[in-house]
Amino acid sequence: MGITAKNVRVNTLENNNVPTSPDENKLSKEELELLINLIKKSSFLGEHIEIIYNLVLKLQNQFLEETR
Q1: Angle between the N-to-C axes of helices 49-67 and 29-40, in degrees from 0 to 180, rounded to the nearest 10
Q2: Which three-class secondary structure string do you get for the chain?
Q3: pLDDT tens, position by position, 11-50
Q4: Is this prediction's pTM over 0.85?
Q5: CA distance 59 to 11
Q6: What does the buried/exposed string (b/e) look like for 31-47 if buried means 16 or more CB atoms within 10 Å of the residue's CB?
Q7: Interior angle at CA 43, CA 51 and CA 64, nearest 5
Q8: Main-chain phi, psi angles of 65, to 5 degrees
């Protein structure tokens, strides 16, 4: 299954006044690992390879920070 720009949607909160701390938006080690494994098992169009590469690099760097 591939990913396309058409399939990506940003969900918005109904109440934008809800305060969020930076830690609430930070992914846990388990969440990062799940995303990396999902990407690993997916296929992508050639036109998205650079975007996916950069995304995986960021996820990997965050994962490595979590494991330190």
Answers
A1: 150
A2: CCCCHHHCCCCCCCCCCCCCCHHHHCCCHHHHHHHHHHHHCCCCCHHHHHHHHHHHHHHHHHHHHHHC
A3: 444 555 665 676 788 899 999 999 999 999 999 999 999 9
A4: no
A5: 20
A6: ebeebeeeeeeeeeeee
A7: 55
A8: -65, -40
